[in-house]
Design the sequence.
């Protein structure tokens, strides 16, 4: 392997830049060339490439987003699109690829590898932490810290007015952010897609909380929770059934994807980038580089795509006890 291409694809996440920097500098360290591919697979199809030396990634370890930009590419889903991408890589002398993204991006990498035998390595970058084979995806820790910081602020106003706040956080299929940030911010209840708490239990818990003398309450709700009502319907439902509560809703939205990565995400990105490049140089391909029990570990892409990242049920119990 003489030249490695790196791209970011799918939703952006804090720590992607630190991972790009790590890939670029690990290539330089091993005296191989590195090419940055703009806008994910779409840039691969359009030949939007740039040579990247170790100085091209100065001062980005601390920046959110991705300097290579990210995109979703319908064209890469077609064999014709992938053929164009392959031809561009061959013309540019690129002979291996590091893909930083989520499971959709890994599926694209796997399909490409099967079609052309092109060596690929994945680095999990998504705030949702919903990828099998790693305890942490890039951006997850930063998102948790962002959410906790914001809920702390919401709590100030909630307790000044004796209000109940429903805070909706990202996570259509996974409750990792809701559960961990909820515990970290001292939420009374946490609703996640993996568990159906049930409306009755929610009302019961809120009643108990009021009776126990709490002056304010925060309920953290993942976008994809199973309770069957969106956050605004839930507000109406609770106000109808518990008139003693004055409910407000806060949907945190895209702010959760931005901001400077935490130290944890920067260190993780640095470690994953080194391992991704060195694994390719060792002749490995079609793996995702992740972290398991604080050790860097390779998981076949296929498993990373198909496997489910389970929620830690003990955390639900901890959350329950904490809201006593
Ligand atoms: P996020 O978790 O933020 O959604 P993701 O990587 O899962 O990130 P997707 O939009 O699902 O994001 O996928 C990113 C890109 O990967 C797609 O736009 C497409 O170009 C490529 N891709 C996804 N699935 C396939 C597939 N089956 N075949 C080829 N390419 C694919």
Sequence:
């Amino acid at each position: 392997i003489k030249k490695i291409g790196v791209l970011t694809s799918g939703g952006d996440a804090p720590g992607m830049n630190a991972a790009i920097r790590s890939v670029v500098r690990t290539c330089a360290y091993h005296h191989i060339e590195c090419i940055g591919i703009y806008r994910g697979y779409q840039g691969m199809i359009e030949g939007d490439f740039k040579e990247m030396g170790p100085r091209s990634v100065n001062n980005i370890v601390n920046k959110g987003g991705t300097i290579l930009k990210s995109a979703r590419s319908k064209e890469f889903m077609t064999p014709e699109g992938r053929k164009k991408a392959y031809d561009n890589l061959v013309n540019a002398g690129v002979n291996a690829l590091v893909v930083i993204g989520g499971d959709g991006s890994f599926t694209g990498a796997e399909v490409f590898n099967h079609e052309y035998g092109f060596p690929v390595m994945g680095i999990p970058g998504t705030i949702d932490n919903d990828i099998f084979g790693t305890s942490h995806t890039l951006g997850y820790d930063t998102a948790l810290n962002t959410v906790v910081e914001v809920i702390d602020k919401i709590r100030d106003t909630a307790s000044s007015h004796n209000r109940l706040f429903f805070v909706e956080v990202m996570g259509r299929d996974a409750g990792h952010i809701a559960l961990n940030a909820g515990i970290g911010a001292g939420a009374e209840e946490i609703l996640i897609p993996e568990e159906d708490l049930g409306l009755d239990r929610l009302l019961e818990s809120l009643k108990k909380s009021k009776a126990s003398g709490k002056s304010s309450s925060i309920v953290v709700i993942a976008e994809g929770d199973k309770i069957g009502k969106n956050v605004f319907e839930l507000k109406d439902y609770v106000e109808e059934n518990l008139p003693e509560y004055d409910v407000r809703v806060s949907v945190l939205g895209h702010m959760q994807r931005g901001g400077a990565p935490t130290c944890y995400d920067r260190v993780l990105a640095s470690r994953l980038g080194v391992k991704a490049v060195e694994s390719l140089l060792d002749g490995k391909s079609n793996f995702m580089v992740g972290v398991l029990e604080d050790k860097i570990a390779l998981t076949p892409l296929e498993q990373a795509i198909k496997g489910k990242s389970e929620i830690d049920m003990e955390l639900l119990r901890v959350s329950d006890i904490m809201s006593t």
In short: The first helix runs from residue 16 to 29. The pocket of adenosine-5'-triphosphate is lined by residues 9-11, 41, 72-73, 76-77, 101-105, 107-108, 111, 126 (CB under 6 Å). The chain has a mean pLDDT of 95.
